Amino acid sequence: MQNVCEIMDALAERSGLSVRNRALFRTALTHRSYLNEHADVDWEDNERLEYLGDAVLDFMLADYLYENFPNAPEGELTALEQPMKAAA
Q1: Which residues contact 45 (CB under 8 A, 6 or more apart)?
Q2: 12 vs 16, 31, 35, 46, CA distance in Å?
Q3: Among 18, 23, 54, 79, which has the minimal tally of Cβ within 10 Å of its Cβ?
Q4: Residues 6+ apart with CB under 8 A from 66
């Protein structure tokens, strides 16, 4: 898989990214479908990172709503949250 790693390195360089952890960078860019087509590759797909990212975004959204709607009860904050999550 040297070719794929070279492509990832080139992507990082062109994007001006400083990649400190190449394995994590590779995981972030690896979709499950790629691994299904390349059974010989022992890599992790990006779904666990996607889960983590979703959790961070949920936290940020909750913080935003909490701070910007100080008089809104929990149920109203939840109702405000749903359309924003759907749009993301």
Answers
A1: 27, 30, 31, 32, 34, 35
A2: 6, 17, 21, 17
A3: 18
A4: 77
Residue 79 corresponds to which tokens in the numbers above? 């109702």
- The HSE-up count of residue 62 (CA atoms within 13 Å, CB side) is 9
Give residue-wise pLDDT tens across range 26-81.
999 999 999 999 989 899 999 999 999 999 999 999 999 999 999 999 999 999 98
pLDDT, position 2: 61
Look up residue 56 and give its DSSP letter: H
- Phi-psi region for residue 33, left (φ > 0), alpha (ψ -120 to 50) or beta? alpha
At 13, the pLDDT band (50, 70, 90 cuts) reads very high
DSSP states of 25-59 = HHHHT--HHHHHH-TT-----THHHHHHHHHHHHH
Q: What is the pTM of this model?
A: 0.72
